[in-house]
Amino acid sequence: MRRWSLGQLTVIGVRPAELIEIAARAGYDAVCPLVGLIPIEGLPLVPLRAGDPDTTAMAASLKANGIDLQNADGFVLTGQDNFEDILRLIELTAEMGAPNVNAIIFDQDISRGQANLARLDSIAQSFGMTVTLEFMEISPIGTPQAAMDVIAGIGSNNVSLMLDTLHLAQSGFSAARVRDYGPSAIGAAQLCDAPAQFSFEEYRRMAIEERWAPGEGGLPVKEFMAALPADMTCAVEVPRLDEPDLQARAARILTLARKIDQLASAG
User: Fold this and answer.
1) pLDDT digits (tens, 9 = 90+) for 59-93
2) d(Cα 165, Cα 61) in Å, to the nearest integer?
3) Taking the domains of the chain in order of start, what are their residue ranges?
4) Do residues 10 and 34 touch, judged by C-beta distance below 8 A?
5) Architecture of domain 4-266
6) What is the pTM of this model?
7) 183 vs 16, residue with greater confidence
């Protein structure tokens, strides 16, 4: 049975320990917290900091509830990167059991962004962690191939793709072609749904605050799940600002995600 992780965007605004508690009550296996390395407009979050009460409570809740920290998300590389902060956050999330960090390049200088990704990868490797690179059209790395080109330029087999159904659809890359990259190229996946067609402005809004649960929209989510390795933990990332009962929403989304995965497995 596939394992499922609760992405922090799905429960916008919760404190770190509350993310764990919602995940546990809803039946998730893991979580993908945002580390809070840089502030994200419109997204209230509490940065992870060693010794901070919120972070300490989160670590305790992970153990108490048997929830894994699947992926430390939000390592955004802008060209103004503080690698002391990056080192500290990678060390902190490694101590809490995270096997992977997820990076996004928002640096218009792609060569510099690539060099900084290589530097982040070196730090992650020193803690026994892998790295995924997420592409999105609101960043300079907007397609799977652009991300693969950056990864190839680093020359590290420790860095792989993060695939998100919304960003994949916006890039024009079909879910069926995900298999073309092979399982070793895909390090993590995030599932959501959206209208079959949408404008770039709608896409920008949906990325942070208005996605749909799997199966409620027009994206080929079943085909996407069918293309993923069966043993890959998949995160749900479904932000919405119009469903205030976050616990009920987290549970509902997991039920729908499992249904889509079962349909994909059945062919």
Assistant:
1) 999 999 999 999 999 999 999 999 999 999 999 99
2) 29
3) 4-266
4) no
5) Alpha-Beta Barrel (3.20)
6) 0.94
7) 16
